[in-house]
Amino acid sequence: MSVRLFNTASRSIELFEPLDAEGRSVKMYTCGPTVYNFAHIGNFRAYIFEDLLQRHLEIRGYDVQRVMNLTDVDDKTIAGCKRCQVPLADFTQQFKDAFFSDLDTLRIKRAAHYPAATEPKYIERMIEMITELQSQDVAYQAEDGSVYFRIARFTKYGQLAHLNLDELRPSGRIQSDEYEKESVGDFALWKAWVPDDGDVFWESPWGRGRPGWHIECSAMATSLLGPQLDIHCGGVDNIFPHHEAEIAQSECITGKQFTKYWLHCAHLMVDGQKMSKSLGNFYSIRDLLERNYSGREIRYALLSVHYRLPLNFTLPGLDAARSALERLDAWGERLRLFASDTPPALGESPAKKRFLEALDEDLNISGALGHLFDWVRESNRALDAGSLTPAEAARVLADFTSLNSILEFEPEAASVPAEVLALVQQREAARSARDWALSDELRADIARLGWQLKDTKLGPQLTRG
Ligand code: AMP
Ligand code: ZN
């Protein structure tokens, strides 16, 4: 097996080879939410794509160490705490809590670390890094007291986004509110305190102020993962200037290539339009749960479109996700009722192999789900025709369970208790032996446990009640 990924840096699909000499450990950094509000489904599209990437690399044997930052100081968080008249930390805490609860709702695997920008050790690291950049003359303090990165000093600046640096140095008058900068493209490393910031500031060699967003990520990524990352992800909006700035800052300090593979997901649109509060098409996870969609259904809808294609999110799309999951649930239940107890000794099924090979190819999820539903159709047909053995059904089930370590599509709760399943299997055996009396007795036992059993042409079907 070999995983291939589209690298934004080269604009091509490349064979994935981690930096680790043994080829096992993978360092992955993912830009996280700015905690000034509930994260929206566009943010979660990015986090679900990163979840798919991590889980696929793991099933392929890599040991993924993932970090996701929390941006808990910036203009929006400061404006929010001022509006609510609460300290910054209290204001952001509620959205951090909501974010973690939404991750669980969507079954997103937790990263190894969730550093927050305002943690003292990271603020200290940011100040150290800016001091180092200033000593290299790559950073300068402007008249307003803020410190900027001099992009003209970093020749690679613009390479990730494939921008020509000259385009960032327009001639003539520059209209910019940050008029103190030498060049319009220079970005802030440290923002000098202004009265609107209230009590949000840190002391620094440049006076009171706060870090810029880009240096936050460089400091947290390199503190936790070291000077070099295998993979860095985000949405396409992060490519420029955010990731470009991260490369510039980090590489000036470490002298090493910051990230080997850059992966970015396309944006999520709603009903074909940009998601915005004014259009009334702005959804948080909570909004969708209130409309009675489950986290699993939202996960399916966000996961099922290839990450580099724009995702057009609609409520009918969520209904389609519901139907697809119902189909998988019915299939899983049917297999469970028919499968033998003994672990299958038949090896991996070709369908599972096809599924994983599709994901190897730049996370081709549409191809992978296509294989999954072909498998559902074929095995249902084989069950109808009586040509699938209980051992084969057990293998299909085991393989589906293993794919669920990536998909996380299993029903909310184990739908049928093991005790009931055992009785159904005993009853199937009694029916095969034409022992109708025992079969009726077992059906009554099943009913006493709260389940109704019907014999259909698809096999025994259980319903609650
Ligand atoms: P933010 O909180 O705006 O910094 O965004 C957090 C993450 O969500 C970043 O990786 C963004 O690129 C991503 N993101 C924001 N909006 C969207 C969207 N509409 N579709 C996909 N990803 C998005
Ligand atoms: Zn970032």
The CATH class name of the largest domain reads Alpha Beta
The CATH superfamily of the largest domain is known as HUPs
List SSEs in N-to-C order: EEEHEHHHEEEEHEHEEHHEHHHHHHEE
Structural class: alpha/beta
Q: Name the bound molecules.
A: adenosine monophosphate, zinc ion
- Residues in β-strands, percent: 5-15%
What does this structure look like?
- A hairpin with a 5-residue loop joins β5 (139-141) and β6 (147-149).
- The protein contains 14 helices and 14 strands.
- The chain has helices spanning 41-59, 75-84, 88-105, 120-135, 213-225, 239-254, 285-290, 295-303, 315-338, 350-360, 365-384, 390-407, 418-432, 436-448, and strands at 4-7, 12-15, 25-30, 63-68, 139-141, 147-149, 187-192, 209-211, 229-235, 259-265, 268-270, 311-313, 451-456, 459-464.
- The model is unreliable at 170-176 (pLDDT under 50).
- α4 crosses α5 (213-225) and α13 packs antiparallel against α14 (436-448).
- It is elongated and about 90 Å long.
- With 465 residues, it is of the alpha/beta class.
- Helix content is 45%, strand content 14%.
- It has a four-stranded parallel beta sheet with strand order 4-3-9-10, with helices on both faces.
- It has three domains: 4-265, 3-Layer(aba) Sandwich (Rossmann fold), CATH 3.40.50.620; 285-407, Up-down Bundle (Four Helix Bundle (Hemerythrin (Met), subunit A)); 418-464.
- The site of zinc ion has 3 residues, from loops.
